[in-house]
Write a structure and sequence with these properties.
globular
Length: about 90
């Protein structure tokens, strides 16, 4: 991997209680993306994706709709400095 990027996303809508975190973990692993995902107290989901730029963009695009029962109304993204993450975890 020559270039590595890191992007933090905040996902709003019906994203808790719909298997969002586990689904995003599976998608990130399928894409070879490292990072983490967690529920926030305000009902949003926060995730960090780190890896190949194209794979990270694919993970972000997936987060924009989520699993079947999710309803994503907003996705906010922030580029960050890569931290050298090697796995994807559900926090």
């Amino acid at each position: 991997m020559t270039d590595v990027v890191s992007v933090r996303v905040l996902v709003e809508g019906r994203v808790q209680g719909v298997w969002f975190r586990e689904s995003i973990r599976r998608e990130a692993e399928r894409l070879g993306v490292a990072g983490w995902v967690r529920n926030l107290p305000d009902g949003r989901v926060e995730a960090v994706f780190e890896g190949d730029p194209a794979a990270v963009e694919s993970a972000i695009a997936w987060a924009g709709h989520g699993p079947e029962r999710a309803v994503v109304t907003r996705l906010e993204r922030t580029d960050e400095t890569p931290q050298g993450l090697t796995t994807f975890r559900v926090l």
